[in-house]
Amino acid sequence: MFSKNQPTQNHKSIETIIGPSVKVQGDFQGEGDLVIEGILMGSLETKNNLKVGQNAIVEAGIKANNAFISGKVKGNISVKGKLEITGTAIVLGDIKAQILSIESGALLKGNINMPVSKFSAQDELPVNPTEEVEVSVEEVEEK
Questions:
Q1: Both ends of the chain: CA-CA distance in Å?
Q2: CB atoms < 10 A from the CB of 19, how many?
Q3: Are residues 74 and 52 in contact, defined by beta-carbon separation less than 8 angstroms?
Q4: Is residue 114 classed as helix, strand or coil in its secondary structure?
Q5: Where are the domains of the chain?
Q6: Backbone angles phi, psi at 29, to 5 degrees
Q7: Sign of the CA dihedral 26, 52, 99, 140?
Q8: What is the pLDDT of residues 97-136, one digit of tens each?
C-alpha cells in the first residue's frame, strides 16, 4: 500500500492520478490504485488502494480496498482492509474499516465501525452506552 515515506511516482500499480489542478465531478469507479491530489466530488469506488494527498479535497462516499488519507474528506469511508489517517487529515463522515490507524493531529467527526470477530457473551457491553458500569477492585485483581 501507499506509505508517506514512499513517493507515489514509483508505484507501478497506480492506474489513475487526479492532479492538484484537476476537479472531477460525478461517480468515479476504478480497478487499480488511485491517487487524488486535486478535488473530487460525487462518489468514489476502487477495488484497490486509494491515496488522498495532503492538499486534496474529496466530497464523496468512498469505497476502497485500502486507503491512505492526508487531505480533506467529507463523506463516509468504507475500507475492506486498512485505513490510515495522517495528522493533516480532516474527515467528516462515518468510517468502516478492518484496521484503522489515526495519527495525532487528525480531525474526525463521525462514527467508527470496526468488525469484531472474537466477541463473547462474557464481554458484552451495556445496551445503553451512557449506562454506568461499576467494577470493584476485587474484580479487576481477579482478571
A1: 38
A2: 11
A3: no
A4: coil
A5: 8-117
A6: -130, 140
A7: negative
A8: 999 999 999 999 999 999 876 656 555 555 555 555 555 5
